[in-house]
Design brief:
The complex is a heterodimer of chains A (261) and B (265).
Chain A lengths: L7 E13 L6 H9 L3 E16 L4 E5 L6 H8 L7 E6 L3 E5 L11 H11 L4 H15 L14 H13 L5 E5 L7 H16 L3 E5 L3 H7 L2 E6 L2 E7 H9 L11 E6 L1
Parallel strand pairs in A: 3-7, 3-8, 5-6, 6-7
Antiparallel strand pairs in A: 1-2, 1-4, 2-10, 8-9
Helix pairs in contact in A: 3-4, 3-5, 4-5
Chain B lengths: L1 H12 L1 H16 L7 H21 L10 H28 L1 H4 L8 H28 L5 H4 L3 H24 L2 H16 L11 H7 L3 H13 L7 H25 L3 H4 L1
Classes of the chains: A alpha/beta (261), B mainly alpha (265).
Amino acid sequence: MDKNTPIISIDHVSMRFNLAKEKHESLKEYFIALTHGGIRFDEFFALKDVTFDIMPGDFYGLIGLNGSGKSTLLKIISGVYKPSAGKVTVRGSIAPLIELGAGFDMDLTARENIYLNGTVLGYTPKYLDSKFDEIVDFSELKDFLDVPLKNYSSGMVARLAFAIATMTKPDILIADEILSVGDFLFQQKCEKRMAELMSGGTTVILVSHSIEQIERMCNKVAWLDHGHLRRNGPTAPIAAEYRSFNKADSIPAEKTGAETK
Amino acid sequence: MLTIKKSFASFWKYRYLLQNLITRDFKLKYRRSVLGVAWSVLNPLLTCLVMWAVFGSLFNARGQGIENFPVFLIIGQLLFNFFRESTSMAMESVLKNAPLLRKVYIPKYVFPLEKTCFALVNCLFSFVAFLIVVVVTWSPVSFETALLALYPLVMLFFFSLGIGLLLSALYVFVRDIMHIWEVFCTLLVYGSAIFYDPRQMMGWVQAVINLNPIYWYITSFRSCVMWGEGLTASMLLVDFLCAAVSMALGLFVFKKTQDKFVLYM
């Protein structure tokens, strides 16, 4: 892969949500609202005109306070959301670790879930066969393979999910605050695995509220503030600035009231 | 052309997911039941028995003038059940998988498609019930044209898939659809000639029932399997057209609205 082409280009991306004051989930409610003078939406920009590139091999950290748009950005990159404006170009395969165990069925056993979740991520059963032992080893769940997942502890579920998502060498690994689950030994193991993937050329995007973790692991960061990209670039100076950040300095989010009749 | 190629490539990539989801549904459906898959056969068989008893004794119209009434009944019952099951399961499928769709990218049509396939697999299992009825009542079956019955079955599959896609998209935005559909299906039971032959009815009733696609699929099937008459030109045409229109409508609405799904789930 060309080292000088960005693996992910985020180009003037905005994401607008309609904060429906009243949510109409049934026809009756909808018509009542309609007769009472239109349906009101408050438009809210979770992301506003964000532009930056991620190069192959980067370990990119996303920082920002709660509600600054970090998760929204990750979801746009992984294709869950379509941006209301702008474009994201991704060159490569993505393994999303947005909330562990998203693709699990709690009624199925671990064995069955490995195949189900693996195919959710787009792998073939044959490939999963060949990686099966590796997944089981990494997650340390050999004795619980045929137990339904609903009887697992949350840490066990997290271990299994992490093992499935990282057993391949994806081009891009997206991790949303996953390392906050599991005990410290498992966290160390995860960090080690991510470092391994990195050395194999995987680009990682990490969201974390732990600035220490970001400083330790990431070479670049992007700082989001109420949907605006405040700073991006090498970690050290931005992390330092983020530490001394005062909430009063933040850029207010963009909001408009729109009325549709 | 390129988009068709692209969407097919993505479908091909996710074929194993489809397969895994169907297996999961099957496993979970019969987990902790003693008779397991046998229920796929017993259920339509018992329902058929109830209907036969009701229309036999209560209304004293044991399919008067209809030859091989039990076979007639179970064909209607099986095909209609497939339609009702697949569409109602498909309707809820997208919303039920909201936790997944909010976190990982998967083509969203996978879920209604999976439910329709699952219902078809179920329906094929249930055809054992049909065989049992045929053997027990020792009714004649026209083997020469029986294979032709695949045509209405396949067309019914696409017809149901189209409706399923449409309903699953609408259901994300308006939850009332579920209740409306339930009532509508009940109405459809009486309008699909499951336990009567509309040819014995008054003219205007016949005309109304002729507007019902399900009736056409059931009748085409019966014509192949029971009456040995094969498929008439109008059957071929109507079966196909209904499926095509339903698919076009379903795909169109689904494609138009799918980017907004996550915002409403």
